[in-house]
Specification:
Elements (H helix, E strand, L loop, with lengths): L17 H4 L5 H8 L4 H6 L13 H13 L5 H10 L1 H7 L11 H11 L4 H15 L8 E9 L7 E8 L3 H16 L12 E8 L6 E3 L7 E11 L4 E8 L5
Antiparallel strand pairs: 1-5, 2-3, 4-5, 5-6
Length: 249
């Protein structure tokens, strides 16, 4: 028999708690059960004023980033959109159905005004990672490493050239040390390696000197940063680094 679903239930009032709507096996429940975020308050307290309007809870700011990375959401803007309609995410943040989720720019502004040029985020990252590892979330048997370039906010036409030394590659230095270690263990004299360096010319951005000039394949030449991320098989980030590109690739 053909039946038609009633859509008038959309406006039905139901007495139910958010906790009832979050599955028991949802990842946010597992994270919430084993990770204590309260240590964040003492770490960031010195960056806040004792006067003025109430701020967004700093723990919420960190949880926003955690949601973004745990669930592979591509940007903070999209993360906020997902949280607005996802009961589990709201539950994790401690926001009910009616509370307004912070604007996507809130995290960026707080980072620039409070946390930039500090090691606060590194401390928070490793404290959370340590708790996750102790809870058995992190699997270090297999690690996945990937990198990508992120375009710098710099005009590609505004630069100057600078001569720098081209240093010996790290793996070559390690190899030479290993060779000498073996020679010395055999009673032989170590080899005195010639210093392997030469002058090379690089482009330095006048807008963002920390960025590097990036060229790859047929892509557009631009100033950029290289971001490297290491994670385990479950998606937990083990290490994240930002490097500058100091020569064309």
């Amino acid at each position: 028999m053909l039946s038609k679903h009633q859509d008038d239930i959309r406006h039905q009032m139901v007495a139910i708690s958010m906790d009832d709507l979050v599955p028991e096996d949802h990842l946010v429940r597992k994270v919430d059960a084993v990770i204590d975020f309260d240590f964040i308050y003492s770490l960031v307290e010195h960056t806040y004023s004792h006067t003025g309007r109430p701020s967004v809870d700093p723990v919420v700011l960190i949880k926003l980033v955690l949601i973004q990375y745990l669930f592979g959401i591509r940007s903070m803007r999209q993360t906020i959109k997902e949280i607005e309609t996802n009961v589990a995410y709201r539950w994790f943040l401690g926001y009910d159905f009616t509370m307004k989720i912070p604007h996507f720019s809130t995290f960026g502004k707080n980072y620039v005004r409070r946390f930039a040029e500090t090691d606060v985020f590194e401390q928070i990252f490793y404290r959370i990672l340590k708790q996750a590892s102790e809870a058995g979330f992190v699997d270090t048997e297999i690690a996945f490493v990937d990198s990508t370039h992120v375009k710098a906010n710099a005009n590609k036409n505004k630069w100057h050239k600078k001569g720098v030394r081209k240093e010996t590659r790290a793996y070559q230095e390690e190899l030479e040390k290993e060779i000498n270690f073996v020679r010395e263990s055999e009673g032989k004299k170590p080899i005195v390696w010639k210093e392997k360096c030469e002058e090379k010319e690089i482009k330095i951005s006048r807008t963002d000197p920390e960025s590097g000039y990036y060229v790859k394949g047929e892509r557009e030449k631009q100033f950029a940063y290289s971001f490297h991320t290491t994670c385990d098989r479950h998606g937990f980030i083990l290490e994240k680094n930002r490097n500058t590109w100091k020569h064309s690739r």
